Amino acid sequence: MLRSRFSIKSLERYFLLLAAGVLLPMSVLTAILLIQSRAAYLSTTDALRAFQEVRATLLAMERVSAERGPMNAALGSTRPVNQRLLDALQAARVRSDTSIANLLALYRAPRHPDGAREFNNIQRIRYALLQARADADALIMSPRATMSGQRVLEAVDGMVALVPALQLTMADSVRVVVQHELDAPHLLTPALLASDLREQAGLLGSTFTPALTKQRRLTETDQFRMERVLGRIDQLRDLLEARLAPRPDLRASRLYAEMRSLYFGEALRYLARVRDTAALRPEGADVTAAELAATYVPLMQTITQFRDLMLDEMEQSIHAHRTEAIRLLVTTLVAAAALTAALMLALRQFRRRVIRPFVQATRIIGAIADGTTAAPIPVGKYRGEVDGMFAALSVLKDNAAARRQVERERDRLIVDLAVMAETDFLTGLLNRRAFESRFEQTLEQWRGSHAVLAFILFDIDDFKGINDTYGHASGDAALKVVADLCRQTWRHSDVVARVGGEEFAVLCHAPTSDQAVDAAERMRLRIAQASVRAEGGAVFALTASFGVACVQWRHATAAETLFRRADELLYRAKTGGKNRVVRGDVV
User: Fold this and answer.
1) Residue 174 near residue 192, CB atoms below 8 Å
2) What are the backbone angles phi and psi of residue 495, rounded to the nearest 5°?
3) Which one of 324, 502, 535, 560 is the catalytic residue?
């Protein structure tokens, strides 16, 4: 009887322990799920708020950028300015002011308690906008003959500078959207690129304003500004193509096709024709600033329409995720209640002293297999076979840790040996063996390139005299100075090595052999302008002689052939007076 009563009490105790041991982790798990569901809901709420700020900022940027169109037309108009142009300018300014006021409302407390910095920045931008308008109005009201191209350019630049300033104010909002929204790389990023493209497109049109206003030919400065903007437009187009590659549905959309056809096709061809005319005729282009804006600006609207398509898709995605987060939160609450009730009914089916040790052992084995930090192994906590299992796991854990330590030390040693085998110990540059290996790799990768391969060999003039006069330590210092100049002068893609005592070699690609020679000349000048301090405190100068051998891909052979050609050219530089660059014909 006593034995029976004791057994019943033991089973009750084990049951209570089982209930407490299961209910507590399940309660924590339920709490974590609820917290995560709530965090997902709050995350989508933050993403939606930040997205509204981003969209309002992009609209303000567009309106401020669009204001330059009627301003440029008024600047280039005859005096007095046509009232229709002034009305269009005023309407554009009203739209800009409205969009900035709406943007300020988004950052004003209490809607955005942490938006004081952005609010103040936007206020400063609004004041700068008023000043830029005043400068433009002064020019619009002044006689056209008294306007200088520089003043017109300053007025345009004053408006242009406002858009990047507005763009900076939304950096934190963009970060929040990207952080909380998975579709941001595929939707928000193309929208931001399209917005930047819209600004660059407007800036490209504004580059014509000084010349059209003064009715003069385009200057080299005007041409340079246009080329720089066109380069940025080409870059943005490539970035858009890359970003839309995972989304063929967006690439095949009507708005994207219209943007490619109307802007990248018709609009840019129209500006190219105006540019060609303005570059050839002494009186400049045969259109006014107003006529250019009337033709060019409507073609730019396809960029804005495509941007809005991306923003609409982004907003729909955020709303969908927010709805899903709300559904998940409600589902989690219902499931937590149901799971708790079900768990109370199922606790009698488990035995704490059997299930829990094996689950814990499984986790430890997985951690050991993955190489991650394993939980403490409870050796001595259980009895019999279970305790023996944990004792074996403890030994396995120690052996795995020792093996991983040995593997890490072996890998580190291999890396160190590889670096030492390829690096010149004094200068830190590649040695000759590594240089020849890089040459072979370059030939294998250099397929179909129209560039030339330049092999530049140079050495320090009268290096033996430096050693004899100042000592070998000073000679080593000179070699280190030249090595530092190499790292400052040559590109990361160029292969630079010390191939002899005072001899260095460079392997680089260049569009033409002239550019390779120019690079060698820059290096020669840097060496000639450098100074080295000897051990005794004396300062001495250096010069170097260069041999530049260039070869096209179809004629490239082994490293020794180019090395021999460059060595011959270096010898000619030495015998021809030193401190000079001697080039060979492109083979």
Assistant:
1) yes
2) -100, 120
3) 502
